Amino acid sequence: MQNHIEKTLYSGHASFKVSLSVTIPYGNPTEFFIIGSNGSEHLLRADGSTTDVSCSRDTIVLTLRLFVIRAGERRKGRKKGLFFHK
Q: Which Pfam families does the record associate with it (predicted)?
């Protein structure tokens, strides 16, 4: 399955709709939402066992936002690599 996904992604036949958004609700240091293109909201929580939970949540949110931006650029043909390129 992994090989099929990678082959589809690198051959340019994968599609990604950049209508997702990642938001952080005010006052909740461990939670964030992923809002889909159809308006569905998915509440996610960072692991509470670490000492700095808000940093974990912020790292996850920034990574997801970077993915959304990079995937949109790749779809428009601006970048060759998905995240970073040489």
A: DUF7046
